[in-house]
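Ops channel
N.P.: pipeline sanity check, posting one input/output pair.
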């Protein structure tokens, strides 16, 4: 049965109107939609104006009108110029992580753990489809409750796998109905992580773990993090703790940590370096992470030394670290002889040992590596653009201007430290002010949309927007980490994964010196994370960058859809031509998208999108 609109068109143009008339109608309707749906009533000026909170009161009406217009356009086109939606992937790809095909890696002869490593060059299984959520998937619980309990249907770990696991952390978690809880009834963490954290603090000479920041410990790399208990506690102490663990076909540590809203990324240095620059972390932690540290001629320990800052700490908790005849006393020197000897070659000193926990401190003296005491050669050149390079048997960072002991660093970068990164203080502070204003605009824009989609329950107070809806943000082209700094200063309860695209200026060392987390990544390839792990994706200038790299914008947006949770948000900022192309592709990917003119006379535009919850 034909719609009244089509009957009217038939009277005007005849039963089979010419194609050029159809195209003219389509263009006219698109222009009407753009005019009626644009944010012309806003003054979203990133320099001179502020956004009024009541300008989005008609959002629901605009949203409904846009959907009706879209469906009507598809009917008018009669298939000639229909926007073809991207199809859904099969059920087997619900937890799909590209570049980690263990079967394919085994077929080409990779072994000894390398089959679990990242090999994008071997992956040929790419499909232009949308990764669907599991049938039992639910929107994550709001924070802070969502940090301590997750929906069991949201992760690949099954209850049978959970119950059969021999891991102490898994055994002590609680499985109740369709949830996995990470705390006991009295609210205390049941695996003793608070006592453990306090023990580490005492072993490095502190009175309490609340003094970590004062001792210069801001960033922590937690290797093989279990399900994030230690990292969650460190976050409560205002530390940036990033979990890194190998890809697991089932029961992933990284997936569960991210589902809790905690920072995590897939990483494995069996054969390749981690995607971090030298001198990145104040502390590296491994608790029964399964790595034999003194194997492969100490390459794993050399990699830890590379990413550890001068004066930083390596914390190792493992029963296998003991000699066979060691006891659980505080006696030093009970580590295995090979491990003890190799740490001396790295110019590390064993600070303390308590039962199964050992803590080494990296030297603050760079000359140690060139003296007779140092037996491992110093690397030539720098590793500024290191990206999954083979593990190297040499010491990095000793000639860097960033060689500053952690206890000597200030909380904020001074002008001298900025100049080390090639930044003038005035330019840095101008960029910081820009992101403070941009963040206020983003939040003013998103908050009404969030509340319109998720109305509060009767009697509830209005939450602090969007405290309950956005736990983490990926800044896909982070520049100097300005958005992350603005979020922290505004006291938003979110953490940011700062990504520096390969081929752009590598500012990742600056980001780590600011106390933030981040990775170097080639956006022509998939990102090393599980599906549905981020709440908001932000990309400023990234689309133009990947175009300059001759990469596919369509594949990038598909990858963004994979790593974004249902009902998550995307904010794209780029040139008008680039954003228009992205808006067309967003329609194919089924995103609800709005183009925003900044009204500041520039060619820059914003495209704000939301991923729908497809329940097929």
């Amino acid at each position: 049965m034909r719609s009244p609109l089509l009957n009217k068109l038939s009277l005007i143009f005849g039963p089979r109107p010419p194609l050029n008339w159809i195209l003219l109608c389509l263009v006219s309707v698109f222009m009407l939609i753009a005019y009626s749906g644009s944010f012309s009533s806003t003054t979203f000026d990133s320099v001179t104006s502020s956004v009024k909170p009541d300008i989005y009161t008609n959002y629901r009406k605009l949203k409904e009108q846009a959907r009706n217009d879209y469906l009507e356009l598809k009917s008018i086109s009669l298939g000639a110029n229909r926007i073809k939606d991207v199809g859904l992937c099969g059920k087997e790809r619900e937890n799909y992580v590209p570049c980690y095909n263990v079967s394919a890696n085994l077929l080409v002869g990779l072994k000894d753990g390398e089959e679990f490593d990242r090999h994008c060059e071997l992956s040929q299984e790419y499909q232009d489809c949308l990764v669907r959520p599991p049938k039992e998937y639910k929107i994550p619980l709001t924070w802070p409750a969502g940090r301590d309990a997750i929906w069991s249907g949201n992760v690949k770990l099954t209850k049978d796998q959970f119950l059969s696991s021999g891991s102490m952390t898994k055994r002590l978690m609680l499985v109740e109905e369709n949830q996995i809880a990470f705390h006991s009834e009295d609210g205390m963490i049941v695996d003793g992580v608070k006592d453990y954290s306090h023990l580490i603090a005492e072993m490095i000479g502190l009175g309490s773990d609340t003094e970590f920041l004062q001792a210069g410990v801001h960033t922590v790399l937690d290797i093989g993090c279990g399900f994030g208990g230690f990292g969650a506690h460190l976050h409560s102490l205002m530390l940036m703790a990033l979990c890194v663990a190998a890809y697991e076909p089932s029961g992933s540590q990284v997936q569960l940590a991210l589902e809790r809203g905690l920072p995590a990324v897939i990483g494995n240095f069996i054969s390749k370096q981690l995607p971090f620059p030298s001198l990145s972390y104040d502390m590296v932690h491994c608790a029964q992470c399964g790595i034999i540290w003194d194997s492969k001629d100490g390459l794993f320990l050399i990699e830890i030394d590379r990413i550890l800052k001068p004066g930083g700490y390596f914390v190792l908790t493992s029963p296998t670290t003991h000699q066979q005849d060691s006891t659980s006393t505080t006696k030093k020197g009970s580590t295995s002889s090979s491990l003890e000897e190799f740490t001396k070659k790295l110019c590390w000193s064993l600070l303390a040992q308590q039962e199964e926990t050992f803590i080494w401190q990296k030297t603050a003296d760079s000359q140690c590596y060139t003296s007779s005491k140092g037996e491992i050669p110093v690397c030539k050149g720098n590793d500024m653009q290191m990206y999954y390079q083979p593990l190297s048997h040499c010491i990095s960072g000793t000639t860097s201007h960033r060689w500053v002991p952690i206890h000597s660093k200030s909380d904020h970068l001074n002008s001298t430290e900025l100049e080390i990164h090639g930044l003038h203080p005035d330019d840095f502070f101008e960029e910081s002010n820009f992101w403070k204003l941009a963040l206020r605009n983003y939040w003013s824009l998103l908050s009404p949309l969030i509340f319109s989609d998720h109305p509060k329950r009767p009697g509830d107070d209005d939450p602090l927007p969007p405290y309950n809806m956005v736990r983490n943000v990926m800044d896909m082209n982070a520049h100097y980490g300005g958005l992350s700094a603005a979020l922290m200063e505004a006291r938003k309860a979110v953490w940011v994964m700062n990504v520096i695209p390969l081929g752009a200026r590598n500012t990742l060392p600056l980001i780590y010196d600011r106390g933030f987390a981040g990775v170097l990544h080639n956006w022509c390839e998939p990102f090393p994370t599980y599906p549905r792990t981020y709440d908001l994706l932000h990309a400023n200038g990234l689309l133009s960058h990947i175009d300059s790299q001759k990469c596919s914008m369509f594949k990038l947006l598909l990858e963004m859809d994979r790593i974004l949770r249902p009902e998550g948000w995307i904010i794209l900022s780029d040139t008008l031509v680039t954003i228009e192309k992205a808006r067309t592709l967003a329609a194919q990917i089924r995103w609800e998208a709005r183009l925003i003119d900044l009204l500041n006379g520039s060619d820059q535009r914003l495209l704000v999108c939301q991923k729908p919850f497809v329940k097929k």
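N.P.: looks fine end to end. The radius of gyration is 26 Å.
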